[in-house]
Structure formats: structure tokens, C-alpha cells
Design brief:
Its EC number is 2.8.4.4. The protein is 29% helix and 21% strand. It has 523 residues and is an alpha/beta fold. It is globular.
């Protein structure tokens, strides 16, 4: 795996309600009581032992500068959207680098800029259009790709100067357009580490100790509020040998955590009819369970995102319990499920046309906790969906009170161009949407604080994301915390040997609403 210089990245996480702050050639700032779950924060000052600063600078990645050579064309890249779009950006950059292009880390140094867009909700569409305009103003030569690329007419109407527009995961079209407008350089016959060291893991834009692995593209569901199938098509799974080849390459490159992503992770392999291939001499099915079992043996953290609560997930929860017990928390399939429940009211779920809407999800959650008591469940919810009544919303609050999920994000419903839900009757007024959002998140804030308080005094294995050298603090995550969207574990009084990517065993001595705190030393 290669790490490139910091590039212009704006990411939108589907588990959050608003765009995250743009990352524009500089680190981002995160509060130690970071509101990763979009919940109102208490207004009182925050203090913890050493009176930590309220703002913490977290570097974007473990990026290192690459050398440049005169005459080599450079391509700038603006990546917006979810982690799945980030993986698309990584693949395009890998291909461009292999062809001999260099990646520019600012507009002025680029011969051309590629903007990978998001088109999931209206605010994402607007930010994508703004980013295209910014790239045109600051550079002039722009190629547009990604989900918004499906609406080429809208893009060209607002920005007629764009050189080319392609859709989502249109890798070959993007490369071809770049080649056309900035001819690729002649490859040197001499050894070039920027090219020759690219392995099966490719180039990653994440910090070097974690990486996303996309196992499939598209979705077979037709939820009324979602346009993903029209943007990315039906489910297309990668064969299991390709997935495992990438996973092993990432481990060999030093990655300590793999984040498995797709539109519907638990449906992996359905389109392939669970085809069996041979991986390292053993038969292995392209199937959700088989993939999880194989990845659990890699000896590093493996985290599952975008899992639907189908009955066959129960067996995977058993893998989580077994593999983490065997590793002592340092490797295996993490007891963490990111499940987009979206709502709990049967009538709202029916209007949404959600998969698994007939499942008794509370019973399923109880069954998972019986199998694996330490399992952490994250989810997202939509309030103010057309036709949502007061009774529906109260049903959702009651469900959350009983479910006691660990991590929750929330949207207020907004129309998405092309979504069926736009035509549903009985829209909910904006002020009611906002009031429901605030009530839901206030409830979840209380639940989160109670659940984290239960961690005080317990021993946890944590992965170091960043070192705050001024405060002598390691900013870490436990198995319960996915990067960017969940909380942190802040470890005091570290010594000079601790670095990003290390795993530490710590005892938790304090908790806030969303984060945990520990002191460095023997556990």
C-alpha cells in the first residue's frame, strides 16, 4: 500500500446529518467531546485531569511527500462522499499513478483536476456543484465523476467548462478522459518506487493503519427515499478471491484494521450464487459468512459496515465472539455491527420499503447480545419521513429505549431528486422534523452516556489514530469506534515510543457522553 500526499478531500458520511468540514490541504480539528453522533453537546466547560485543550488537531493521514520531476503531469483530486466513493477515488489514483502521473496536493500544481462527486441528498449535490465550480475557478481543467455524474446535464448547465462527465465507479472512462486531456507520460525503464511499489492493496487515502475494502457495488433494494440503485446499479459482488487478495495485501502493508463496506454487506455474493473459488488451496464461497470467517483469521481488526438484520447474520455474530475471545481483542472480526435500521414503526418502514422490515429487530438484537455480550451496534434513523405521525415517532423512541443502541446518527428527512418518496402524501413540516430530531438525539445522548459509564474500570485494547504531542495524549479507538463517525479513547501520559498504528491495552478511568479516557501504563 502506498500513501500519497494530502489531497483535497471532502467526505460525507451517510451516518451523519450534515457534511463534515472540508479537508482542504490541512488537518481537521476534532473536539475531545466530539459530536460524532450529531447530538447536542452540554454547554459547560470540559475538563479532564490534565485540563486538555478543547480543540485537538488530528492529521488527515500518515501521508508522506513524494518527490516530483520536471515535466511529469500532475493530477489534482477532490473526493466527496461516503467511504465507498473514497475507495473509487483510491482506485482511480492507483491507476493514474501506475500510468506515470503524479498527484498534486493543490490546485496550482495540477495540470488537471478530477472531482469525484456525491449525489445522495440535496445538500451533497450542492456541495458537489460548488466543488466543481471551485476547481474550475482555481484550475480551469476539470473532469467530473461519481454519483452526481449521472446528471451530466445539470453539471454542464451550471459548469459548461467541464472537460468530461462520467458516472459512479466509471474508472476506465475517467482514466481515458485524463489521458485525452493530459497525455500520459512515457514510462521510464528505470526503477521508480512510486510506481514499482504499488501492490495489490493499491494506493490508499486513509491513514496507513486502517483501510476500506469494498466487497460489492450497487444494491438490489428499492427503498423509496434512496436513489443508489439508479446511481450505481444492482448488486455486483467481487469474487471472494479478489477480496481476500486485497485484504492480505493490506495486512502485509501494515494495515491494522480493515473496514468492510458496500451498499448491502450481508447480501454479499447473492448475485454470484455464492460461487466457490479456491483461495490458497482451500475452497471458499463468495458468501457473507464465508468471507467473515476467512477475514477473521487474518490477525487484524475487521469491522463490518452496512449490514442488514437478516437471520443469517446470527452466525456471523458467533464468529465475532469466537475470534475476539481467541485473540484477546487484538485481531479478528470485531463485535461491531453498523446496521441502518432507519426507523422502527412498521408503517413507516413499509412506506420506506426497507429490507428486513418484517423482522423482529428487538428480538434479533437480544439474540446477538446473548451470543456476544460485548457487541456494539451502530445505526442511523430518519425522522420526519412523509406520513410519519406522532404515534410513529413515539414508537421509534420507545424502540430506541428498549434497544439501547451504542451509536446512533440521525437525519431529518429531505427530498432526493428522483426518489419515489418525494411523491408520498402528508409531508412533515420542517419545524416538527427538527423537534423530533432533537428529542431523538437527546434520548440517545443519555443512553450513550449510560453505556459508556459502564466501561469505567474495564480493560480495553485500543488502536492509536493520532498523537497530540503538545498534550502528550494518544487519540485512540476501541473495537466500539469506527473512524470518523464514532467516539474516541483518549489516553493520558503516553511515552515517546507510542505512535499512530500502535495497539495499547488500557484501563478506562473516565467517560463522557461519547468518549472514554484512560491513562497510559500497565493494564
Amino acid at each position: 500500500m502506498m500513501i500519497l500526499p494530502a489531497i483535497l478531500i471532502r467526505q460525507y458520511h451517510s451516518s451523519q446529518t450534515t457534511m463534515s468540514s472540508p479537508i482542504v490541504f490541512h488537518p481537521k480539528t476534532v473536539h475531545p467531546k466530539t459530536n460524532n453522533q450529531n447530538t447536542p453537546l452540554p454547554s459547560e466547560p470540559y475538563h479532564h485531569k490534565a485540563n486538555h485543550n478543547q480543540n485537538r488537531s488530528i492529521a488527515q493521514s500518515g501521508a508522506v511527500a513524494t518527490s516530483t520531476s520536471n515535466g511529469t503531469p500532475k493530477i489534482g483530486f477532490v473526493s466527496l462522499g461516503c467511504p465507498k466513493a473514497l475507495v473509487d477515488s483510491e482506485r482511480i489514483i492507483t491507476e493514474l499513478t501506475y500510468e506515470g502521473y503524479q498527484v498534486a496536493n493543490d490546485y496550482d500544481g495540477a495540470d488537471l483536476v478530477v472531482v469525484n462527486t456525491c449525489g445522495f441528498i440535496e445538500s451533497a449535490v450542492q456541495e458537489s456543484l460548488d466543488a466543481i465550480g471551485e476547481a474550475i475557478n482555481k484550475n480551469g481543467k476539470v473532469i467530473v465523476t461519481g454519483c452526481l455524474g449521472k446528471d451530466a446535464e445539470k453539471i454542464r448547465t451550471m459548469h459548461p467548462a467541464v472537460l468530461a462527465v462520467t458516472g459512479a465507479h466509471a474508472y476506465e472512462e475517467v482514466i481515458s478522459a485524463v489521458n485525452h486531456h493530459v497525455p500520459k507520460p512515457a514510462k521510464s525503464k528505470e526503477y521508480d518506487p512510486k510506481i514499482d511499489l504499488i501492490n495489490d492493496a493499491g494506493i490508499k487515502l486513509t491513514p496507513k493503519h486502517y483501510a476500506y475494502v469494498k466487497i460489492s457495488e450497487g444494491c438490489n433494494h428499492r427503498c423509496t427515499f434512496c436513489i443508489i440503485p439508479s446511481l450505481r446499479g444492482d448488486l455486483v459482488s467481487r469474487p471472494i478471491d479478489g477480496v481476500m487478495k486485497e485484504a492480505v495485501a493490506l495486512k502485509k502493508s501494515g494495515v491494522k484494521e480493515l473496514l468492510v463496506i458496500s451498499q448491502d454487506t450481508s447480501a454479499y455474493g447473492v448475485d454470484l450464487k455464492y460461487k466457490t473459488v479456491f483461495w490458497e488451496g482451500w475452497p471458499l464461497k463468495s458468501k457473507f459468512y464465508d468471507m467473515c470467517e476467512a477475514m477473521s483469521k487474518l490477525g487484524i481488526w475487521v469491522r463490518l459496515h452496512y449490514v442488514y438484520p437478516y437471520p443469517h447474520v446470527d452466525a456471523v455474530v458467533q464468529i465475532m465472539a469466537d475470534s475476539m475471545a481467541a485473540s484477546g481483542g487484538t485481531g479478528g472480526l470485531l463485535p461491531y455491527l453498523d446496521i441502518p435500521f432507519q426507523h422502527a414503526s412498521p408503517s413507516v418502514l413499509k412506506a420506506m420499503k426497507r429490507p428486513a422490515m418484517s423482522e423482529n429487530t428487538l428480538e434479533r438484537i437480544q439474540a446477538w447480545r446473548a451470543i456476544c455480550p460485548d457487541i456494539v451496534i451502530r445505526s442511523t434513523f430518519v425522522v420526519g419521513f412523509p406520513g410519519e405521525t406522532d404515534e410513529d415517532f413515539e414508537y421509534l423512541l420507545d424502540w430506541l429505549t428498549k434497544a439501547r443502541l451504542d451509536r446512533v446518527g440521525c437525519f431529518t428527512y429531505s427530498e432526493v431528486e428522483g426518489a419515489v418518496a418525494n411523491d408520498l402524501p402528508n409531508p412533515v413540516p420542517e419545524e416538527i422534523k427538527q423537534a423530533r430530531y432533537e428529542r431523538l438525539m437527546a434520548l440517545q445522548q443519555k443512553i450513550s452516556a449510560e453505556k459508556l459509564a459502564e466501561k469505567v474500570g474495564k480493560t480495553l485494547v485500543v488502536l492509536v489514530d493520532e498523537i497530540d504531542t503538545e498534550e502528550n495524549i494518544a487519540i485512540c479507538r476501541s473495537y466500539a469506534d469506527a473512524p470518523e463517525i464514532d467516539g474516541h479513547v483518549y489516553v493520558d501520559n503516553i511515552d515517546a515510543t507510542v505512535k499512530a498504528g500502535d495497539m495499547l491495552t488500557v484501563v478506562i478511568d473516565e467517560a463522557s457522553d461519547y468518549d472514554l479516557f484512560a491513562s497510559f501504563g500497565p493494564a
